[in-house]
Amino acid sequence: MRPSTLISMGLSGRARLLLSLRRLSRPFYRLFFLASASENGILRLLADGPVSLDRIAIALGVDAQGREALDGWLEVGCVLGELGKTSQGYGLRGYLARRLAMAENDDVAAYFEVMGFTHSRVLRDGIERLRKGEQFTFDELDPVTVARGSRIAAPFAQEVLDQIIPTRGPFHLLEVGCGSAVYLRHATSRNPDLTALGIDVDQAVVDLARERVCAWGLADRARIELGDILDVPPRPEYDLVTLHNGIYYFPVSDRVSLLEHLKGFVRPGGRILLTTNCRGRGAAIVEVLSYVMSATRGCGRLPTPAEMLDQMEKAGLTTRPPIRPVPREPFHAFVGTVEPSGE
Known about the structure:
The chain is of the alpha/beta class. The chain has 14 helices and nine strands. It has helices at residues 3-12, 14-39, 42-46, 53-60, 67-79, 95-100, 106-132, 143-149, 154-164, 182-190, 203-215, 255-263, 284-294, 305-314; strands spanning 83-86, 89-92, 171-176, 194-200, 222-226, 238-244, 266-277, 318-319, 331-337.
């Protein structure tokens, strides 16, 4: 390249623009590659590698005509540093690929899938939907994968549960939006006398939760039901009602009435625990999630901490400052108490 060309590109800012594109390309492609490798079971397949191309093709159901393209896809993983290739075949090489293949990191792998496929699609198609006056639907968010990914916040929410649930004695828990039932499992393990009901609107999520509850040997203490909590007549028989990572599945304008409805399930002196990421610190992942929910029919943006406290108080709950298990992080836990009448 002639010096004059370099000078011209530098002065115009085009050189910097192209360098920025190059820098962004690697993490961009890595995210999508890992999301696809996770979703299609390739990370687990290669976890005990190396595995030959023929065996990979058979496992994935790829015929002979598609093997050249499959080999090209795997080579992309090698260029990104996530896969390695030997004379015996392909295996996992990169830190992310190796860690995401572990069963205990399924929640993080699921969030890679959510970011790679769901969030990117809503960001890509959102303006077009707005032009048409349309919104995304709950099913388009892939609720099962979202339920898997939501377990990322489980350690933080479990810390708060430990502050509320006693270690012994009768205790009745209602979990709204039970997801993968990971919180029900923690609650029942903390208190052997605790019984629980989990309810969710999505059949696939309910099936997953029931399967896990049975596998954990908790079917006699934790029931899972399909339904919309707003359709259930409230009876004040629960010591604790929880809503983990679920407030944004309700429009902002409906949240006070939702909390009033949930309050009807809580006995006097009992509490409502609501956990959620909150807006306010400029975290990109939080703002993207907030946008995704605001663009989805029947849902709404993430709250700010002050807004959430205000809505709980308007619903007649006695509140306290939110709990933040990790300081300066957007995850908040809000506790509202149902005071006995006359107090």
